[in-house]
Amino acid sequence: MTSKRPTFDELPLRKDGPRGNAWGLWGPDDQLGMLNLLTPDVTTAAAREIVDGGRVSVNLPLGHLTPPCFGRAPLEHKVWQKTPRIVFDDSLSINTQSSSQWDGFRHYGFQKEGLFYNGKTPDDIRDSNANSMHAWVESGGIVGRGVLLDYAAWADSQGLSPAIFAPTSITVSTLKQVAESQGTTFRHGDILFIRSGYVRAYNKLPAPDRLALTEPAVPSAIGVESSEDTLRWLWENEFSAVVGDHPSVEAWPVQNREYCLHEWLLAGWGVPLGELFDLESLSAECKKRGRWSFFFTSMPLNVSDVFIELLVEGYTNLR
């Protein structure tokens, strides 16, 4: 484990690697990335967020996106009776990007260099379980203090109507305003949640409009700005993971390839990206309590060579 975190301006750590990389920060064979920040002390402090025992799921139903984005296959659910017994079995066929999901470190690499987190190559990904999410499971899952920046609620309060199904970029200066309006401060190892309003808007669409969203080869969606300012802010706040209610966390298509968050966060720093989380109930509960921090747990499926993981268990415990 590292004893001193370098500054943003000291990146990249591996000088022969892509710009901005933090390779080797936790050792050359690390598979946890910034989840290493979720130490026992950090998790113990996060548990103090539990006061009234209220719980909220942040999973969308598996078949909620009809159809899923980017041409992914929809859910297939089969049920059959094992006659003559009064017993039923079922099976699921899913694309792991068909609902709420974690993007892992095998999913998206530096496109120009062809490298993944800690310098792993496509051959490493194909031929081994390097950077697989099974390491997250073996470490006990993602457990820590979540903090919600409710951009959608803030925009409503300001009389703003941002375009949701367009590459609208949410800037760092805006996120800082949201945090200030909530009285929110961050701690080392926090799991950052950003509610853009995507799920809320999607839920209001009739079926033909949902289908129309998936017709472009590269669907457009609101998200965090892909910029140096965003990356510097994320690094300096030492988040262990970043979560959104939108398809790509960052505005999509990427507006600035030089600062593509998927490259920098997944392949460069080892920061898990949570996408299409259902933050509607969480938003309501945080507003009711006047508090936007909470205890969060998530346990991915225990599969040793998975690229993108469905959020099969993701709960918040609100104070």
Strand count: 13
Give the CATH architecture. Answer: 3-Layer(bba) Sandwich
Spatial order of the strands forming the largest sheet: 1-13-11-5-7-9-10-4-12
Q: Which residues sit in consecutive blocks of at least 5 with pLDDT less than 50? A: none
Q: Strand-and-helix sequence, N→C?
A: HEEEEHHEHEHEHHEHEHEHEEE
The CATH class name reads: Alpha Beta
Structural class: alpha/beta
Q: What count of structural domains?
A: 1
What's the total helix number?
10
Percentage of residues assigned to helices:
10-25%
Largest sheet geometry: 9 strands, mixed
List the helices and strands and how they pair.
Layout: H1 40-47, E1 54-57, E2 76-81, E3 88-93, E4 101-103, H2 122-127, H3 134-138, E5 142-149, H4 151-157, E6 169-170, H5 172-182, E7 191-194, H6 198-203, H7 207-213, E8 223-224, H8 228-236, E9 241-244, H9 261-269, E10 273-275, H10 280-289, E11 293-298, E12 308-310, E13 314-318
Parallel strand pairs: 5-7, 6-8, 7-9, 9-10
Antiparallel strand pairs: 1-13, 2-3, 4-10, 4-12, 5-11, 11-13
Structural overview:
InterPro entries: KFase/CYL, KFase_sf. Belongs to the Cyclase 1 superfamily. This is Cyclase. With 319 residues, this protein is an alpha/beta fold. It has helices spanning 40-47, 122-127, 134-138, 151-157, 172-182, 198-203, 207-213, 228-236, 261-269, 280-289, and strands at 54-57, 76-81, 88-93, 101-103, 142-149, 169-170, 191-194, 223-224, 241-244, 273-275, 293-298, 308-310, 314-318. The chain has one domain (8-65, 99-318): Glucose Oxidase, domain 1 (3-Layer(bba) Sandwich), CATH 3.50.30. 24% of the residues lie in helices and 18% in strands. The chain is globular and about 65 Å long.
